[in-house]
Structures are given as structure tokens and as C-alpha cells.
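Data card: per-record layout.
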Amino acid sequence: MDPTDDGDELGEDGTDGADADEEGEDDSTEDEGEEESGGEAQTFVVEIENVSPSTGHLLSGTTAVPEGADEPGPLLPGSTYVVDFHAGPGHAISFAHMFVPSNDLFYGPDSDGIALYDAEGNPRSGDVTDEVLLWDAGTEANEEPGAGPNQVLNQGDADTGPADPDTSVRLASDDFGNLPEVSDVLSVELIAHGDSMFSLRLTNVSTGTTLTSSEGDSPVPVAPGVWAVHGEGEAPLFMEGQPDAGDGLEALAEDGAIDGLAAALAERTALVGPLAPGVWVVHGEQPALFEVGEADLGQGLEALAEDGDPSGLEASLLDAGYAAGAYAVPEGADGPGPLFSGARYSFTVEAAPGDHLSFANMLVQSNDLFYGLDAAGLALFSEDGAPISGDLTAQIQLWDAGTEVNQFPGAGLDQAPRQSGPNTGADEGGVVMVVDDGYAYPAVSDVVRVTITPQ
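The structure for this 455-residue chain is written out next.
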């Protein structure tokens, strides 16, 4: 790594790192740049903004194909729906499945969902049927379960019954005296597999005599449903005592139609989390932070990418004679902290023609991923010596430092928000590369926006 100046820091780093060069002494970066192009040193302001959603579900989807079946269908006696998913401490799962012989009843946990970890942070596993309830969506007037002419098995068209005078989502009331207990229809099991992996199994245990109505005895089919893994207390499907939000729960509860609610959940499903404080460096044509396809240089990128700690990398760059600094204080904040949705970091650098800029910010909901430019950085001047300006987001990539084995984003137990301490995940022994680990990540432009402005 060849430094491109004499060690004086040329910009403010926003933290308690080395101060910018207040005296304005010449350094080799400015001298060399002016000798090569005759250009003057230029000050640039760089802004890094978190544009990700402020809230979002970790995962969501539909449950429509019974275990062992080849196509979607209702859950009949003896059959099982299975949901496989990842989740971390603080997450819960919610779901909704129509009680078919009804006007608008559905099975699901309360509006907060089923907590997936106990108070000590241990993954839960076992029978959770007692946390599943039968709900009334409050969208269609109730008729005798199993005998109503406006129920999905008897009606001619969807959405044909009269409106319910009580529009609130509430626990189902046994007005006709024939609603079976939840445990007589469903058995619900939560299975923890380790490494943030879970399965939820819903089995129909009803028999030919579970539901007794004026039309005779029958089992209770359960329609396909939707599910979401979310933060505790988020209530992704409904709020008890409030009217249906109009996102598709009505169609699910009245007709077993899941596409509308599934689409609404998908729109609210996103990897949500802050960006960590970062490091910037002004350098020549040679990379300063990493080499693509090579192991981490061992100068502090690992701590930045795994734990959001920029101090070691900043110190290494300054010791090597680079103009560099850390940025850690969001605009308007009183002190250092992570960058949440809608907030931004800002830092100032000074450079001359021939100089390049590199920077790195950890994606906090990861093991060792960071946002940054290509290894060669960004040339701060055009070929004719004009300072660059504008939106740099299209040039930003999500990099994998190759230092820690990746886990499911937003749920891995060795990721910074959930790990017991820094540097606790399994060593990967890999190389720095654009992330390609088989997991899904949001587009860079959905998380971060970077602009540069010459002053």
C-alpha cells in the first residue's frame, strides 16, 4: 500500500480522530497532483444517506401447498402446512388461515405474533397450539358455522355476505354454540433447528365429527394462508379491536384468497437496519482499503466490516501516511452513532487532480459486509482536471470482506446486533469480493445514497 501524501489529514473526520490540516501546509498529494496537471487542490463534501425503510418485516410469504402435495390446496384432516424460516432474538411469527366453514373467521396468534426466543434469548421449540386463536375479521355478518348460505363452501360468488355491524377484528364468539376448540382443529409446532433456523408446522387434526351444524357433522378444512416474521410488537396482520386495515385480510378471512394480503406484506418486507460509522481515504491510483480477490490486508477492515468499528482502519491509514479519517456522527446528532433511515453522515476531503477517494460503511445486519466503491476508488477529477460532482450511488457496491462466515441477513446470531461480543463469528478465510453468498439483499440504491459536491 503506497501512501499518496505525507501523513497530514486533509479533511474533517467527524470523530475524535486526527484533526484536519489547519495550517494548510503543502503535502506530496497536492504537489504531485499540481505537477502532473497544474490543477489546484479542491475541497469536496461527501454525504452518505441511509434511504432504507424505517420499518419492515424480516420475511413474509404464503402457506398454500400441504406437505407432500404437488400443488396448492386446503389443509384437510391429517395434512400439514410447513413454513421454514430464519429469525433472531426479538423476532416473532404471525400467520392467518381461514376457518373455511365460516363467513370471516381465521386462525392465527394474537396481533403481536408468537415470540421465537424466550426471555433469555434461547430459541423456542415445541407445541405452541395454545398461542393460536380463532379470530373474527369483522368484515361479514356471521352465520351458523358450516351452514351459512354466504360461506365460501355454499355461496355462488366471493364476497357476497352482508357486512358485519361490528367492524373490529376480535376473538370469534360462539354465537351458535358449535365452534370447536382450536386444539380440536389444529396442532401447531415450532421447531428450532439452530443457527437462526426454524420450522412452523400446522397440522389439521379435525375429524368427521369436529364440527356439528344443522347441515350435519363434518371436519374443518383450513384454507391456505400468509405469514410474516417481524419484530415483536409490530402487529403485521391486524390490531385487535381495530377494523381490518384493508390490506387483504378480508379476502383471506371470507374467501380464502391470499394473494392480496401476501402482496401487501411483501411490500413491507425489507432488510431494515442502520449503517455503521465508516472510514474515508484519499489515495492515488493504487487501492488503499482492499484488493478484489485478495484476503483482507489486516489493517482494520475486518473490525469495520464485522463490528462497525472504524478506529483501527483509520489509525492504520493515518500511520501509513494517507489523508484519511472516520465519520461517525450523523448530521444533527449530539455524538457518534449508527446511521438510521433518513439520516446521513457527511465528511469533507481535500484533494488534487490525480487523487482518488475510497470509503467503507458496514451493513449492520450482516456478518462482514460493507458498502463502498470499487477497490481503485473514485477519481475526484475528470481527465481535463474538473472536479467531479453529483450522485455516486450507481458506483457503490456491497462487498464481502471474506473474514467471517455469512449468516442469514438480519437474523444471524453472530451479527453485530445479536452477537455476544465483537469478533465472535466463525472465520471465513476468504477474500474481498462483491457479495455472492446465496442470500437475498436489497438493491444498493434501496439502502444508501451517496453524493459528492465540490466547494
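Known properties of this structure: The first strand starts at residue 42 and ends at 50. Confidence is low (pLDDT under 50) at residues 4-38.

See the next section for split statistics.
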